[in-house]
Specification:
It is built from 15 helices and five strands. The protein is of the alpha/beta class and 314 residues long. It folds into three domains: 150 residues, Rossmann fold (3-Layer(aba) Sandwich), CATH 3.40.50; 60 residues, Helicase, Ruva Protein, domain 3 (Orthogonal Bundle), CATH 1.10.8.60; 87 residues, Zinc Finger, Delta Prime, domain 3. A five-stranded parallel beta sheet has the order 2-3-4-1-5, sandwiched between helices. Strand 2, helix 4 and strand 3 form a beta-alpha-beta unit. The relative contact order is 0.10. Bound molecules: adenosine-5'-diphosphate (ADP) and magnesium ion (MG). The site of adenosine-5'-diphosphate has 20 residues, from helix 3 and helix 9.
């Protein structure tokens, strides 16, 4: 049997020009590539928007075919303490670059490092500044100690837009010869919020079932469809509690959605409902209360029905 290909690797852009969105980052980096040198950098932003991808593409463009010789990737969340800095990172940083003026250490999820490990990292960055550049990726730059921040050019990565997700998904669809229905693109964005790693995985899983449709996407991720939730809430708001309750049980039992997923869906839809602000606030508070009860082990049927009854009250 052929090995299953992992699409997140297969479709990871190899060149900066293939990256979707993040123009503000890519344009600056292209200028550095032209000069043949880069500063230390901090890539901050949400998951699945191209931080690792861009670091890898940058190394390829700077170093060419044998980029691997001068590039080390480490994930700080595997080992968060000072040993990783004193061991693996330092061992790589101190050796002479091959065929170039410097090498690159890419440290993913660097906000997972303890403050002591970050201090050690700062010293390593200083000591080997002549031969090594550091690219640190993190979700929040505020979790990185100030002396490191001030040594880095900071790049803030943005969540990708619906158009970006579409552009990327079209590339995958073409590459894999799969068909996406027109509403699938929007659903993919709604489900993933612009996280292309998740989008890729969801597409790969869904395409195993055939053409990719909105329904199949939502089935694959077992998320409540926004319009189902909205319809349920509006039905109850209109005073028809029994029909709303039926829709709720359909989601829980026939669609097999978890209580947490449905509450999250309800929470999102509260902002879309045409109701008075005061009521909106009260319902948001209720969502928080019932989510807590669910987490404490309350039965999803009872808790969600109770939450729903709050939509009935004036
Ligand atoms: N801006 C982007 N352009 C094209 N593909 C992307 C982009 N961001 C993420 N991807 C896709 O999602 C996968 C994960 O992206 P990655 O760069 O590892 O995310 P992170 O920001 O968490 O480091 C990549 O393999 C690639 O297929
Ligand atoms: Mg990454």
């Amino acid at each position: 049997m052929a090995d299953i290909e992992i699409w997140t690797e297969k479709y990871r852009p190899k060149k900066l020009s293939e990256v979707v969105g993040q123009e503000h980052v890519v344009d600056r980096l292209k200028a550095w590539v032209k000069k043949g040198s880069i500063p230390n950098m901090l890539f901050a932003g949400p998951a699945g928007v191209g931080k690792t991808t861009i670091a890898l593409a940058l190394a390829r463009e700077l170093f060419g075919e044998n980029w691997h010789d001068n590039f080390q990737e480490t994930n700080a969340s595997d080992e968060r303490g000072i040993n990783i800095v004193r061991g693996k990172i330092k061992d790589f940083a101190r050796t002479i670059p091959i065929g170039h003026d410097f090498k690159i250490v890419f440290l993913d999820e660097s906000d997972a490092l303890t403050p002591e490990a970050q201090q050690a990292l700062r010293r390593t960055m200083e000591k080997y500044a002549g031969v090594c550049r550091f690219i640190l990726s993190c979700n929040y730059s505020s979790h990185i100690i100030e002396p490191i921040q001030s040594r880095c050019a900071v790049f803030r990565f943005k969540s990708l837009s619906e158009d970006d997700v579409r552009t990327y998904a079209e590339r995958l669809a073409k590459g894999e010869n799969i068909k996406l229905s027109s509403d699938a693109f929007k659903a993919l964005y709604e489900i993933t919020g612009g996280d292309l790693r998740t989008a890729t995985n969801v597409l790969q899983a869904t395409s195993a079932l055939g053409d990719v449709t909105k329904e199949r996407l939502y089935e694959t991720v077992a998320q409540a469809r926004p319009e189902d939730i909205k319809k349920m809430l509006e039905t109850v708001l209109k005073g028809d509690f029994q029909s709303g309750r039926k829709m709720l049980f359909d989601m829980l039992i026939n669609q097999g959605l978890s209580g947490e997923d449905i509450i999250k869906g309800i929470y999102k839809q509260i902002f879309e409902l045409e109701i008075e602000e005061e009521k909106r606030l009260r319902l948001i508070e209720k969502c928080g209360e019932y989510e807590f009860r669910l987490n404490q082990g309350g039965s999803p049927e009872i808790q969600l029905e109770a939450l729903l009854s709050n939509f009935l009250k004036g």
